[in-house]
Amino acid sequence: MKRGRPAKPKAQKLIEGTYREDRDYGGLPAPVLESIPEPPQHLGQGAKRYFLNICQVLLEMNNLSLSDLVVITQLAQNLEINEMAYESCKDGGYEQVTQNGYGAVTAAFTVYNQTSKTIRELSNLLGLNPSARERIKVKPKENEDNELTKILES
After folding, report:
1. How many Cα atoms are found within 13 Å in the side-chain-facing hemisphere of 129?
2. Tens digit of pLDDT for each residue in 97-153?
3. How far apart are CA 113 and CA 93, in angstroms?
4. What is the reported pTM?
5. Is 108 within 8 Å of 89 (Cβ atoms)?
6. Tens digits of per-residue pLDDT, 50-62?
7. For residue 39, what are the CA distances in angstroms to 74, 77, 117?
8. Is the dihedral of CA 80, 48, 118, 130 positive or negative?
9. Smallest Cα–Cα separation from 64: which of 13, 11, 20, 102?
10. High-pLDDT (> 70) share of the chain, %
């Protein structure tokens, strides 16, 4: 096991502008996709919707790569399961009474908590929350003139 801080991916270094060729030991950057791919067929309808939305956000950030599709698929699946667990909790409540008469959390609530944790972890990997975006400085796409770019450059 390596000690110390984990190495940044080359793609992140390229985006941040800190990449140095003399320190590169191999490893190619993941190819950035120019369009949103079709969602995997095995996903449910809700997960497919989440997959497309996540891809759209990453595409707008110019950070959608082929190697991210597995993580995006997992995130979409967990979001769908989380949504179903939440609906189940709304319908049946968060607590159940055991055979001994004690209160315990429902299985749906446990699934909701577990998927929420997984969603946070996967979102961090993709830079989809504020703290992760601070670590991954994303540059806008080339030739993209928007109001924010004009304000920042002036």
Report:
1. 9
2. 888 888 888 899 999 999 999 999 999 888 888 777 777 655 555 555 566 666 666
3. 14
4. 0.69
5. yes
6. 999 999 999 988 8
7. 12, 11, 23
8. negative
9. 11
10. 82
Which stretches within the chain are classed as H helix? 10-16, 45-60, 69-92, 107-126, 130-135, 147-153
Q: Is the CB of residue 15 less than 8 Å from the CB of residue 133?
A: no
Residue with tokens 């996709």: 33
Q: Say if residues 64 and 57 touch (Cβ distance below 8 Å).
A: no
The Cα 66–Cα 52 span in angstroms is: 14
State the CB neighbour count (10 A cutoff) for residue 54.
Answer: 24
- Which tokens in the block code for residue 106? 């429902």
Site of tokens 């749906």: 108
H or E element in which residue 103 lies: strand 103-105
Residue type, 134: E
Closest CA to 85 of 107, 108, 115, 105: 108
Residue in this structure with the two tokens 């095995």, named with its chain if needed = 42
39 token code pair: 């969602």
